[in-house]
Fold these 2 entries.
Entry 1:
Amino acid sequence: MATGRTHRPATRSRGIPEATVARLPLYLRALTALSERSVPTVSSEELAAAAGVNSAKLRKDFSYLGSYGTRGVGYDVEYLVYQISRELGLTQDWPVVIVGIGNLGAALANYGGFASRGFRVAALIDADPAMAGKPVAGIPVQHTDELESIIRDNGVSIGVIATPAGAAQQVCDRLVAAGVTSILNFAPTVLSVPDGVDVRKVDLSIELQILAFHEQRKAGEEAAAGVAAQAAGTTAVPAAAREESSATDQGPDGDVPAVMPA
């Protein structure tokens, strides 16, 4: 199997938009589930629903892969799994280093989804001397002093940063200087990198804040709807009451009463 050092995905050279690239893992996850159930073909509507996108966007995305499906049949599941895996670079081995083996780093090291998707955790690195040699997920933790040699010896091009924010930029600089060209950053800070280095940021607190915004907006809308309904209920006058009021305003012959004498 090829290593990440000698082969890189061809998505950019083939002109696939970044938005499409971001959706390919969603399609692959849905297709993998279908494959595990031995489903041979899938329609664009079914796959779009499983991936959470609309079918027109899915068909457009797949056109960049040269896959148009067969009318009346749909898409071949196994072939699409291969196509998307190849485009994402998952048909080869990608050695990864995780730097920062605290609670988050240890959880990432124990995540079984990496290996099944072509990512091999080659090393775990931490600045705490007390962590050196301790096994996490069956892998002994190594000290940051060995970072450069670890990257060189394992042909690593992808690094995961799970350090505190204050240490993240220094770790990033060392990773880049050692030859890492793609970084997944879990530290709550923005990293500065040179051209040619890709950074993907995962900030759980930001995602929670976005959810909090939506919850607050929904609560506000519900409160406003409640006030409006209450206001409508207090201002509306029943028809019977209106008729009764109208009758009391009339004179003995049904006419509007004359002005009373002073």
Entry 2:
Amino acid sequence: MAFIEEAIISGLISKVINDGINVSMSAIKASIGNSFDKTRDISLQVYDVIISSLNTITQNKYIKNQDVIYRSTEYLLRNFKSYDNNNNKEIFKVCCFELMHSYHDDLYSEFIKQIHVEMSKEKNIELYRHVILKLLNEKNIYDQEVTKVLIDKLNQILLLLNENRQNNDNINMQTEIQQEELYHIVSDHAGDISTGNTYIEKIILANYFRGLEAVGGKIYFDNTGLTFKSHKFNIQRGETRIDYNQIQDVKKRNTLGIIPNGISIFTKDGAEHQFVIYNREKIIDFLRHKRG
């Protein structure tokens, strides 16, 4: 997992460089001061991730004097930006001596781990998505195992983003996917990570297509079938039940024809049920086994 965390911080730094994010302390303070703004632009998310990570590794020592953390954030971002991922560990080492007057290698490991934790939080999910997309575009750098981990994370992010947007204003995630032109990435990196060998009594996030609307919700698996329950804020609400003994076939499908994160369940009454999920390989195997 350490390699993924190194990749994540490299992607974060690349995002700072490519977007020309203002790394001055005045910009950081002004942005954090307006953090009540619900839009939470990428700059604010970058600042928040670094500041929160520094507060964590210093055990909130400067919580009442955040200017110290802001200065350290400026130092890190300015130097990360200048050296473009070439001296991350050494740059962080200097920062640690300023903050804690000491340094050991475990601190850097703790820092990049915390960066990953902060980026995974819902409030910073847009930044996380941008970074994962950036890393996947660098497909020649990573081996197949790392690429699969990144694809899995991206699928989880897309599901969460769609759930949040439906909750806020019913915006469909397809627009965002098209804007990012994900097909350039996923067409080269099709695949999912399989986990577990049963889904009985399990619940997973999913989107279920009712007409043109990708309805956000959850799938509940039990001993005799699965039930999709939509979130209360969807335009189309309700439950869809599929008994295992009524399943004719289960096949992979690509969302928008290009993104390998969907399945089609064909039932004996001639219906096709389309879902967007992650870990689809295992779910397909499970459903094919349960249908008998």
